[in-house]
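FW: tagging you since you asked about this chain on Friday. Here's the raw sequence from the shared folder, copied in full. Didn't touch anything.
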Amino acid sequence: QQNGWYAKPFEYLVDMYSPVRYNAMDPTIFVAITFPFFFGFCLTDAIYGLLVALIGVVLLKGLGKIKESMHSFGWILIWSGLWSVILGLLTNGFIGDFPERIAGFRLPTVFAPVEAFKHPDTILIIAIAIGLLYTNIGFILGAINNLRYGNVKDAIGSQICWFVFEAGLIFLALGYLMPAIGMIGYILGGILVIATIGMLIWANGAYGVMDIFGYMGDVLSYARLLALCLATGGIAMTVNILAKMMTDMVPVIGIVLAIIVFFGGHIANFAFQVLGAFINALRLNYVEFFSQFFMEGKGK
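HL: got it, structure written out here
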């Protein structure tokens, strides 16, 4: 593994999964790019993300000076927290809906088309598109690995066939959306889909056809990015509503109860959502991405 200053800390996450086989593709740079982004996508709260980045700085300046793993982990948290800050500001995540519900103003950084609770459909489309792109990168790396080691049959039946399948789906979609070329699109799309089925059966046997559902499951798994994004904002919003209710409805001690509910609720939500974001960002790499190409080994 030979990576630059930015990607180097993420070797820690790759090695947690398994050492990379000598001469196989090293996925560290891809993990370094996507893990912080996936983490930020799941968390999507600017203040939560800022706290994560600060925890990373504390680790870096403390245990990171004496332990290499903590040094790497500190940088991972810093980059992940910064992505959460950026995406939180864009999607209107700032301690939930604190600015509008409690402080009485709207964040000027919010990009309306991706505002989480107003356009979840747009965020879902973005998540699935990211999943499709990242899965295809995995197929390319897997095909390179298999061809490099002479596993031509595996390359065709596990990676190349999906590019044929996707081309078939594109032609079918064009045939449906563009009546002028409808029949041509349907014919070409049908041929390519049938060719995919043939490649799967040739390479993996009759049960290879079931891999189509596995492919669809891998891509749709990226919908969890939307799910966790909404979970973070939804629970934070609930905490804010309860805190405001305490202030408005309970005389005298209402403000004290509101402060307890506000800080207690957000601390709990922060801990829960950070753990969920970390696990799911790892899962999307370990399960959905690495499964397409990763070759385990113990070095040279």
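FW: The chain has a mean pLDDT of 92.
HL: agreed, and The chain has eleven helices and no strands.
FW: great, closing this out.
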